[in-house]
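Structure ticket #2291
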Amino acid sequence: MLIHAGYTLTFDCNAPTPVIAMLNLHPSRLADLRSPYETFIGAATDREDYRDAFGNICTRLMLPTGTTTLSCDFVIEDSGKPDPQYPADQKPIEALPAEVLTYLLGSRYCDTDRLTTEAWRLFGGTAPGAPRVHAIVDFVHQHITYGYCYARATRTAYEAYEERVGVCRDFAHLAVTLCRCMNIPARYCSGYLGDIGVPPVDVAMDFHAWFEVYLGNSWHAYDARHRIPRTGRILMAVGRDAADTALTTAFGWAQLIRFDVHTVERSQPPPRIVSHRAPFLPHDGILELVV
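Resolution: structure written out below.
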C-alpha cells in the first residue's frame, strides 16, 4: 500500500528566531520512501540536520522576521496491515539491553513516582508481558475522555489520570507511565496516522501520538487512544515523552498561524486539507515549546 502524506506549517516571528524542528521521518522508515523526501523552508537560513540522543533526525533553523512556511509532501510504502500483535514475553530488568533502561524511568510528563502504587493495584494481578500491556491500553482507553477542548500542553500522566480528559498525547503519556511502573520499557512516539481502514473522521487531520513497549527482543506499537490495531502508521520520532519529540521548539516568539497535515492512501483522490488557524490550533500530537 502507498500512502501520500505531508504537512504545511507557517510561523510568524517578530525577530530572527532559532528553531529545532522534528518533522522528519524516523530513520527506520526512510527505506520505505517511494518519492523524494524534501522539506521546503521558505526564507529560512542556516539549516542543519542532526541526530539526537534517541536517534531522531532533527533540523536546526533560523526563522527570519515575518512569516515562514515549512512544508513537505511524500509517498511512502506500507504493509497495509494493522499493527502486529505479538504474544511477547516481558524480560526481567537484569536481562534488558542497556539502551532501553532509560524507558523505565520517570520523565517530564511521565511521573512514575506518583502512579507506581496505583499501577500495581490495578495491574499487579495481570499476566506479565503482552497481556499486561493490553490491560493497560484497555484501561487508559476507557479512563480518559478524548477531546481537543481538553488539550493542555503542561498536563502530566498523573494529571491525566486524575482529570480523566485529554488528547492523544495524554493517552500515550498515561499508558507509557503505567507500563514503566510495571517494569515494562515504554517510549513515546509521534507521527502520521490517517483514517485508513476505518470510517473517516470529519475533523482536520493532525499528527498523532502513540507508544511502543519493549517485549521479547523488540519494540511493539500500541495506541491507547484508538485501542485497536491501526493501519498506516508513519513514525517520525521517539523519546521518553512529548518533550523529547516536540514538532517545533522555538527559542523566541514564534506564532503558529497555519497547520495542515494530510495522510491518505495513494489510490484515493487527493485529500481535502482543512486548515487550523489562530486562535484555534491543534494540540493533539503536537507540542510547541516557546522559550
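Closing remark: The chain is about 15% helix and 30% strand.
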